[in-house]
Amino acid sequence: VASESFLRSLPKAELHLHIEGSLEPELMFELAERNNIELPYANVAEVKKAYDFHNLQSFLDIYYRCADVLRTEQDFYDLTWAYLLHCQSDGIVHTEPFFDPQTHTQRGIEMGVVVNGIARALKDGEEKLDISSKLILCFLRHLSEDDAIECLEQAKPHLEHIAAVGLDSSELGHPPEKFERVFKMAKDLGLKAVAHAGEEGPPEYIVQALDLLHVDRIDHGVRCSEDDELMQRLVKSQMPLTVCPLSNVRLKVYEHMSEHNILKLLDAGLNVTVNSDDPSFFGGYLLENFTSLAEHLNMNEAQAVKLAHNSINSSFLSDEEKQTLL
Ligand code: ADE
Ligand code: ZN
């Protein structure tokens, strides 16, 4: 079984991390005070007690409420910088965070405030911590495709900071086909594409993300194991899956980590990676996701090395850049 020090020392990329989901309760209270906002919680202990989820939606309701403390460019900088310090202690050498602009623009925060704050921290991460990065703009799938198109339009002046688009929020009832046009527009702008699919939604949503959105990676994707034909397709194409073990257990996709299918997918030849999703809400950053697999699934060193290599190889870095990290 792989040890914590071995897992920390492996060079890793994180490919599925919602920057708003890295907001720790302590920083949330600090920002609430700085911005004169009343929180629905009295203290950190009360916040942590509220993080008891029974499915994706019960988490999202709280996650969007917490994001309300983020108001200024400096707030987004501080949020991102705090995450990068966790990357440093976990042995992450490259990260591709998501952000949800519509969560902020809907409340009157301008796209530029959000992007510039995050991008400035990512630049400092490269220069001061030697952690490279690519930023991914996610559309909220519970909103309309027209809203997503408007969001893409607002992002156009900031494309130098954005590498890809993604699709997140409430999956069930909001299939990838709803966003076919806006993904085509994004690809025409030269952006890469990813989409959450097969987290709570059926394998059919994974097929749609591949065939209709032409994604470069699938986020989560764990429900692919219910469809043999899809499994074979994923092995053959080596399409990356960004799996988030602690998230899946906290949101009850699996009752316990010992039931998680990630190592079965890995051993079946799929290109799976380990990621933390929303670490502040799900009780662990990337290293804790790895150690949990060692503890509950007896992950060995060879499996851990493969998962870490997959993460770097599945990033949006150039082949040359990947070589320097492997
Ligand atoms: N937004 C933040 N985390 C998410 C997840 N795991 N699934 C869908 N939307 C999200
Ligand atoms: Zn996610």
Automatic annotation (TrEMBL):
Catalyzes the hydrolytic deamination of adenine to hypoxanthine. Plays an important role in the purine salvage pathway and in nitrogen catabolism. It is an enzyme of class 3 (hydrolase). Binds 1 zinc ion per subunit. Keywords: Hydrolase, Metal-binding, Nucleotide metabolism, Zinc. Its cofactor is Zn(2+). It comes from Oleispira antarctica RB-8. Its EC number is 3.5.4.2. Zn(2+) binds at H16, H18, H196, D277. The record marks H220 as: Important for catalytic activity. Substrate binds at D278. GO terms for biological process: adenine catabolic process; hypoxanthine salvage; nucleotide metabolic process. This is Adenine deaminase. It catalyses: adenine + H2O + H(+) = hypoxanthine + NH4(+). GO terms for molecular function: adenine deaminase activity; zinc ion binding. The active site is at E199.
